[in-house]
Every structure is written in structure tokens, then in C-alpha cells.
UniProtKB/TrEMBL annotation:
<keyword id="KW-0732">Signal</keyword>
<dbReference type="InterPro" id="IPR019734">
    <property type="entry name" value="TPR_rpt"/>
</dbReference>
<feature type="signal peptide">
    <location>
        <begin position="1"/>
        <end position="25"/>
    </location>
</feature>
<dbReference type="InterPro" id="IPR011990">
    <property type="entry name" value="TPR-like_helical_dom_sf"/>
</dbReference>
<dbReference type="Pfam" id="PF13181">
    <property type="entry name" value="TPR_8"/>
</dbReference>
<protein>
    <recommendedName>
        <fullName>Tetratricopeptide repeat protein</fullName>
    </recommendedName>
</protein>
<dbReference type="Pfam" id="PF13174">
    <property type="entry name" value="TPR_6"/>
</dbReference>
Amino acid sequence: MQPNKKMIRLLRVALLGICSSIAVAPLVTQYAFAAKAAETQQLSAKVGKPLKQARELMDAKKWKEALAKTKEVAAIENKSPMEETIINEMLAYCMVNLKDYAGAVAVYEKMLAAGQFKKGEEPKRILNMSQIYFALKNYAKAAELGERYLKAVNNDLEVMHQVAQAYYLQNDFVRAEQATQRLIDTAQKQGKVADEDWLKLLMSAQHKQNKKPAVITTLEQLLSHYPNEQYWQDMFTYLLSDSSFSDRQNIIYLRLVKSTGYLQANEYVEMAELSLAVANPGDAKAVLEDGFNKGILGQGDSKERELKLLAMARTQAAEDLQLLPSIEKEAAAKPTGDALIKIGEAYLGHGQYEKAIAAFKGGLAKGGVKIQDEVNINIGIAYMALNKPQEAISAFKTVSSSSPLALMSRLWAIQAAKAK
């Protein structure tokens, strides 16, 4: 998984238009405030006349000339605090319209330090500064001012996202993770589902810190709300990386891949061969027939081999179906449940799901079953096939969080939840 470059590309798309729209809008209001103040306040003659000329140039959208004239006024000594504030508002407004965002935010910094923002407007102005710094790629200042804004307005999800992005783009992945988690937690308290981009940002920050368990948890959330092939392929890689599955467990894994629709031709064959190896020809027959029906199998040089495998599976499945009733009686008479569990697997392979569930539960009730987690997952799979997702989820949740199959069971639960 390589989310870093892709993530940065996604984040930078968000920068487009920030300075040309977000930054200008508050300044329009502030310029209007400054213009009104200039009309109503008592200005000194040395300031009032050239300031009026600057305003006329601004009204005519002659921004370079207006900026030059306003700078002349700014150079006048012994101005009143009100005059300083008005001039700074006009300077910043000219600079933004000239796309000199660095100059505009520098003026903002002076105004903030001098306490020239109206108290009720200060948080918005701080936010405006943060957005400009973000667009200028000064992510440290963007994060600093974004955090300052959030102290005053602590539930602004958009700003929380920008702050998290700013930390990420500074390569401060610890704070990026913390800020993104804060964003997600706040959204959840508001009854909102975490946005896909937030989860991707969180996962990337975790990945950069080599926090594999955390990455898997976040990837599970992405699969729950925004499933796609890439997320599933990433998850399958994680699922297999630290696992040493038995043949039966590999069959459960391949069933999972098949349920997502991403099972490849070689995996169809692998699943069939594994099923034949564990004496479950019904399962082999079913998966091969599905592969042929979908046009995934029976193509190219492997066609003859796959047809032979299908013929073998069909022959053995027919024989198995004839023997199952008598074998089931023998299994029911056994003192432990292992024999009934095998009967359940056979019925599951043959698509007889009610009988499979009964055999699995009967085997577990007898006791002595060493593969209870596998059995409970198979019970959930049978319930899914019967369109009973809630029962399936309940079965998957019986698998202990400490089990080697814990992640497998959670992924099956994600699939079952989609059917609810």
C-alpha cells in the first residue's frame, strides 16, 4: 500500500481556489467596514484626503494604483489607532485583489498582534489567515492558526480537516493522526459518518508510523462505508501477511474473496483443489461451476485442465450426496462433535444451508470441537446464504478478538452488514 503520493495529490486538489475565493470574501466585508468607518470617523486632514483618493482608485478596481496610494498613507506618521486599522484593511484588500496573498497575510499578522480586529470577528479573521497560509503551503502557520480558531469554534469539521492536512503535509504524522481522529470523533458525536477522505488521511498517517493494527482498523472502517477493490486487496494483503492458515481456513478466506467479487481464476482453481483435498467435493463443484458460469474459467490454455477438475468434482459430489445421510447418522452417535462438524462442512459445500447450520450447532453442542472459530464463521456464512444477515453477524461476533481468525470474522461481518 502506498497512500503517501496519492494522498498528497488528493490534499492539494483542495487548495485550488482557496485564496481566490475564501480569502477574498471576509475581506470584502472588512473593506466595507473600513470604508464606512472612514466616512463616519473623524480622520485627520493629512490622512483623510489621500485615503479618499485611495478608496476611489479601489472603487475603480485600479488595484496597483490604489495599493501605492494606500502605502503612501500608511507611511504618514502619528496616525490614530482607528486610522491604522482602516489603512491596514485597505492594504490587505488591495493585496488580495492583486493576488499578493503573502503580503495580505503579513498585514493580517500586524493587525492581529496590534489587536485591530473587532473582538467578535477575530476568530473568522484567524481562520482566514490559516486558509491563506495553507494555500501558500506554510503548513506550520496554517496548523497553528487553525488550532487557535478551533479553541473558539471547536466543532468546525472543515477546519479540523484542514488542520489535520496541515500536520500531514509537514510530515508530522503523530499530530496528523491525532487531529484526524479528533475530527472523526467530533463528526460521530454529531451523528455523521466519517468522510472517506478523513479515513484515508488517518490511515495514511498511521501507515507512515508503521502502526499496522491501527491501519487495519481504519481500513475496516473504509470497507464498511466505502468498499472498493483497492481497499479489499489491501486488506487481503494484511490478512495473509501474518497468517498461517490451514486448508480449511484457506477455504474460508477464499470464500470471503469470492463474496467480494474479486476472486481470480487461479483462486477459483485453488479453492476447488483445497475443497477436494479436505473431502468437500460439493464445495469444489459449486465454485468451479460458478467460475465457468461467469466466464472466469474455461478460457485459454487452462481450459482442458479446469474441465477435468470440474468433471472430477461433479462425480465425487454426486457420490458424497448419496453417502451423507448414513454418515450423518454415524456422526450423531459419536461422543464428540468433530464428525458432525465435517457433515456441516459437506452440507455447506452442497448448498444445503439449513442442514449445515443444524449439523454445526449439533457438533458444537456435543463439545470437544477444537475448531470452534472456524465453525462459527461457517455458521455465519450459511446464514448469509439464507439471507439472514443479522444471524450471520451474531455468529461472526462469537469469534474471540484474540483468535487468529478474529480479523477474518470481522471482515465477514462487514460483508453481512451490507446485506442488512
